[in-house]
Design brief:
Helix content: 25-40%
Largest sheet: 8 strands, mixed
GO molecular function, one term: amidase activity
Strand content: 15-25%
Number of helices: 14
Region (Disordered): 64-85
Structural class: alpha+beta
Organism: Brevibacterium epidermidis
CATH class: Alpha Beta
Strand order of the largest sheet: 8-10-9-16-17-13-11-12
Protein name: Amidase
CATH topology: Amidase signature (AS) enzymes
EC number: 3.5.1.4
Distance between the termini: 23 Å
CATH architecture: Alpha-Beta Complex
């Protein structure tokens, strides 16, 4: 075992040392809590913590192992904080909102229930923007989460608290969710891996709406294999619609022979990129070629994607928050209020147009993936920006007046419904992380993970830690 804190072990390694009883769950949970105490004053990643509950669960896990109990779940005794938008029975869950600052739910979200079913010990909650709206993790309840690679910079969002915690060695992996990039952008900003899976792999269960497709629960970790293992453990059908079973989630091979990849950092001129981001991601082409992939400059027709994303996002925010807005008028942050209002203003013709555009986009992606296995592009168009800003104010000296304009790189992909993963791709001149985004066809999550695994093994960028 490494001489580092055991929290720096991968998820696979943590499970192994617990199973071998080289380490007890109490020791691992204590190290986890100690690491939070060490890094949280600088990052503000963790906002709720229940150490007594966690240690009691750890003692029970150790008792079961000592008794020689057979059939223990694979992650029995592994500690993990959860995204503060995911309900956890008996644990404060605020959604980053002043309106729910003391809210303690009596139900558990599917993604958390599945983690707990495989043995995870729930220790607390990680920070989010208000109702997970926005790609910068800041709210009026807990304040701003800061990037561990430079605490003057944003950790992105909305899963920014979880990403910062993983990057800092608080835990090996964690849950999040992704509407327009909320798993991928924090992964990029914090030099970790984040997968937005195909719809249905982790289904919604009632009272959640099983038909909502834009926001997807998923996982982040410091390694591709840990993300793949969590998908293997936690994915599967439920009472709602689901993708066909994917597999195998984990593979040994890292070569990419037989893979045809579209490669375009700016999606054929559809994205404006900061120069350092463009240069770092462009340099990855040779890595994929050396691994045996066939590269093409072709990109899919995404002209319908912006309208599809914005309409679907407005609809889902209005559907989810209309009662909160009606009960507490004027209490939502301004940008979120605008999104809810836009959803409430949608007309039947708007929805007819939306369906036609989504059908056109679906056809374009099916056509593209009939000749390509994956599409590779940037994750974030910019380097981590100032933590004092809600979003970057400029790209290449051009002012940004639309707070979603800088995330076209991820929102256009969300609109397609395709699985997409961010993997560490290198660093800018000041040491800030840059991520690369790998996209596959719906249901092609395993191929996305395979390609990411090959790139990760060939480059080793994910091994760099923040110097807090």
């Amino acid at each position: 075992m490494t001489t580092d804190s055991p929290t720096w072990l991968s998820l696979t390694e943590q499970a192994a040392v617990l199973d071998s009883r080289e380490l007890s769950s109490v020791e691992l949970v204590t190290a986890h809590l100690d690491r939070i105490a060490e890094i949280n004053p600088a990052t503000n990643a963790i906002v709720t913590l229940e150490p007594e509950r966690a240690l009691a669960a750890a003692r029970e896990a150790d008792r079961r192992r000592a008794a020689g109990e057979e059939g223990l779940p694979p992650l029995c005794g592994v500690p993990m904080t959860h995204k503060d938008t995911h309900d956890t029975t008996g644990m404060r869950t605020t959604y980053g909102s002043e309106l729910f600052a003391d809210h303690v739910p009596q139900r558990t979200s599917t993604v958390i229930a599945r983690l707990q079913s495989v043995g995870v010990i729930s220790t607390g909650k990680s920070n989010v923007p208000e109702f997970a709206a926005g790609a910068h993790t800041a709210n009026r309840v807990f304040g701003t989460t800061r990037n561990p690679f430079d605490i003057t910079r944003s950790a992105a969002g909305s899963s920014g608290g979880a990403a910062a915690a993983i990057a800092c060695g608080v835990q090996a992996a964690g849950d999040g969710s992704d509407t327009g990039g909320s798993l991928r952008l924090p992964a990029s900003f914090n030099n970790i891996v984040g997968l937005r899976p195909s719809h249905g792999w982790i289904p919604r269960t009632f009272p959640e709406d099983p038909w909502q497709w834009l926001s997807q629960p998923g996982f982040m970790a410091r390694t591709v294999d840990d993300v793949a293992w969590l998908m293997e453990l936690c994915s599967g059908t439920g009472p709602g619609p689901a993708s066909p079973r994917c597999g195998p989630w984990r593979e040994e091979a890292t070569d990419l022979s037989g893979i045809t990849a579209g490669f375009s950092p700016d999606l054929g001129g559809q994205l404006e990129l900061e120069a350092e981001v463009r240069d770092v991601v462009a340099g990855a082409a040779s890595v994929f070629a050396d691994l045996g992939a066939r590269l093409s400059e072709s990109v899919p027709d995404l002209r319908a994607a912006r309208g599809v994303f914005r309409t679907a996002r407005a609809y889902e925010f209005a559907a989810n928050l209309r009662e909160v807005d009606a009960t507490h008028p004027g209490r939502l942050k301004a940008s979120l209020q605008a999104d809810v209002d836009a959803g409430l203003a949608l007309t039947a013709p708007d929805l007819f147009d939306f369906d036609r555009a989504r059908t056109k986009l679906w056809a374009a992606m099916n056509d593209y993936f009939s000749t390509h296995d994956v599409l590779i592009t940037v994750t974030s168009q910019v380097l981590p920006f100032s933590a004092e800003d809600d979003y970057p104010t400029r790209i290449n000296s051009r002012p940004i007046d639309d707070y979603m304009a800088w995330v076209d790189s991820t929102t256009l992909i969300s609109a397609t419904g395709c699985p997409a993963l961010s993997v560490p791709a290198g660093f800018g001149s000041t040491g800030l992380p840059i991520g690369l985004q790998i996209i596959g066809p719906v249901g092609g999550d395993a191929t996305v993970l395979r390609v990411a695994r090959g790139f990760e093994a060939a480059t080793g960028y994910a091994r760099r830690r923040p110097d807090l």
